[in-house]
Amino acid sequence: MTAPLLEIQGLGKRFGGFVALDNINLSVAPQERVGLIGPNGSGKSTLVNCICGTLRNETGTVRFEGKAMDGLLAHERTRLGMARSFQLPRPFKTLTVAENLRVPLLYTVDARSGSKLSQRELDERCMELLALVGLADKAWQYPGDLTQVEMRKLELARAMAAEPKLLIADESMAGLSHSEVDDILALLVRLNERGITIIMIEHIMRAVMTFSQRVIVLVSGKKIADGLPEDVIRDPEVVGAYLGQ
Amino acid sequence: MRQSTFILGAVVLAIALFFAPRVLENDYIFFAGYVVLQYIVLATAWNILGGYCGYVNFGSAAFFALGAYTAVAIHKFSPMPMPLLIVAGGIISGLVGLGMGYLTLRLRGVFFAIASLAMAVVMQTLVINWDYVGGSRGAYIIRPQQVEIFSYQLPYIQYLFAWMLFLAVASLVIARTIERSKLGYGFATIRDDEQAAEACGVPTLRLKLIATTMSGALMGMAGAPFPYYIGYLEPASAFSLTYAVNSIAMPMIGGTTSWVGPLIGAVLLGTVQQVATVTISSAVNLLLVGILLVVFVIIAPNGIMGAVQAWQRKRRKA
Ligand SMILES: Nc1ncnc2c1ncn2[C@@H]1O[C@H](COP(=O)(O)OP(=O)(O)OP(=O)(O)O)[C@@H](O)[C@H]1O
Ligand SMILES: [Mg+2]
Predict the structure, then answer these.
(1) Which residues of chain B make contact with A54, given a CB cutoff of 8 A?
(2) In sequence order, what DSSP letters do the residues of A179-214 get, joined into one string?
(3) Atom of ligand 1 nearest to the CA of A87
(4) β-pair type (A82-84, A166-170)
(5) Same-domain status, A191 and A225
(6) Eight-class DSSP state of A109
(7) Bridge partners of A9?
(8) For chain A, what is the radius of gyration of the CA atoms?
(9) How many domains would you assign to chain A?
(10) Is the N or the C terminus of chain A less surrounded, counting Cβ atoms within 10 Å?
(11) Per-residue model confidence (pLDDT) at position A244
């Protein structure tokens, strides 16, 4: 067994008196495709925020490539190779769509390799990424001119631009049409084949079931299941949690 | 436009701006022009933090005043050449900017604005109680009539004007360079969404410190020659509300997202104020600023440059 890429031990997070995450343990192997599911408000996005350093967890540790992430700021974790999309798209609204992708290229890819991409290389990479998610013709528009769906694609492209080892996609497919979901799934699988580990948070079960090699279920801040997709959806506790909703 | 072309163009224009009033043989133009140039520096400096990063600084007057008082303190000790005073003023105000950045790192929006204002009040109180630079009584600076440059006698006001012209060009070049650089993109992401910026690898805290330091340093440099211009420096005039208000109003009216905005705003408002000072009285200056701000908030909330860009975008779409 290879060493895990991501390892979470005893992670806990509270908002005031409310326990959002309670003693979460999980690990993700390199190049794995993991689905993270759970009812609304179960703590999925909060977990992503704690992994990536957007929020501080009170207890437990996050390890990435064996290194404890305690005290590391979000941008430091991004440079080490984590990238995430936000569930509610958070584009840089005063920058064009193409410029939005420039930011991770300049601040993560450049910073990591220690060499500077030329203007032309930057432009090429931006256009490549936009073509991948189907936004090439919107490159010079501002995020404000995009539809919600296009903004999700931009959000995903921006996370991909950072050339991560681990990509966490937080509901990138909400609102997408059937064929668009297939496009994004195919894209994520392609990225995965290139060696990127992917955690996908999704409510669209069809997407979760086709994509994931393993599914983790959160309910009310607790992990209640972790295993093969077909086993997990038959788990009585998981079924109960979803029906109970 | 290439950077080198831009700098060359700016220098040529600056030289023309220096020699034109000399041809007219009117020193008043130098006195009035100095103030406009000083506002170009202040507005551009404010915009690096306020426009690019989205942090509204209400304490500009303090950075300006600290530059001025640094010059006074050095002058009292022993008169020094102007470039040295400018550098010293920049260093002191830059350090105060860095300190303010550190203390207010976690404050956003209106809380940052209030903290910057509080910082200005503290600084003013310190200076009022600092006897060496005259305390609340103020300090006189006897400025020379002329300076000798290559055995040519240049009237002192023209000498001050030339330095402020240099600072104005320098700050515009700096602002324009930032805008097109990695730093500029980083600043823009801070303005738009700090958490998303961090997620993209932007070290937001460090960038904010760079912005507060640069902004403060430029304001301090603008303040250093001021005691020589005014001849008598007192806390009330150095820390005047006018500087704080103008530094905000000028970029807002011109437009905050590009280096052109503060330039346009400073030239426009600065000139209007100079004319009003001569024709009516200096007391109406702040009133004028207030009226113009209200007008702009209603008709062009993103300033003149913002309106122009919106118009261009609409035309491109059509
Ligand atoms: N910043 C915050 N302050 C207070 N409570 C929060 C905060 N962020 C999340 N919560 C609460 O924590 C709980 C978990 O939220 P989270 O966004 O992680 O859920 P989720 O599983 O991502 O849900 P969804 O499927 O709707 O995206 C919710 O009850 C939410 O109200
Ligand atoms: Mg969520």
Answers:
(1) 195, 198-199
(2) HHHHHHHHHHHHHHHTT-EEEEE-S-HHHHHHH-SE
(3) 27
(4) parallel
(5) yes
(6) I
(7) A61
(8) 18
(9) 2
(10) N
(11) 63
- Are residues A172 and A222 both part of a single domain? yes
Q: Which of A123, A130, A167 is nearest to A150 (CA)?
A: A130
Q: What are the residue ranges of helices labelled H in A40-96?
A: 44-52, 74-80
Mutate: best of B182, B200, B204, B207, partner A, most A CBs <10 A: B200
User: Can you give the pLDDT at residue B17?
Assistant: 80
Closest to A37 (Cα-Cα) out of A244, A182, A233, A240: A233
Instruction: Give me A27's structure tokens.
Output: 């690990």
Q: What is the pTM of this model?
A: 0.91
User: What's the pLDDT at B1?
Assistant: 67
- Residue A242 pLDDT greater than 70, yes or no: yes
ipTM: 0.92
Structural domain for A147, as ranges: 90-163
Question: How would residue A1 be classed by pLDDT, with cut points 50, 70 and 90?
Answer: low
Domain match, A171 and A150 both: no
Residue B21 has pLDDT above 80, yes or no: no
Whether B70 and chain A come into contact, CB under 8 Å, resolves to no
Burial of B124 (0-12, 13-18, 19+ CB in 10 A): buried
Please tell me which residue of chain B has the smallest CA distance to A143. Answer: B192
List of E strands, chain A:
6-15, 18-28, 33-37, 59-64, 67-68, 82-84, 166-170, 197-201, 214-219, 222-227
Q: Which of A24-33, B2-11, B59-68, B205-214 has the lowest mean pLDDT?
A: B2-11
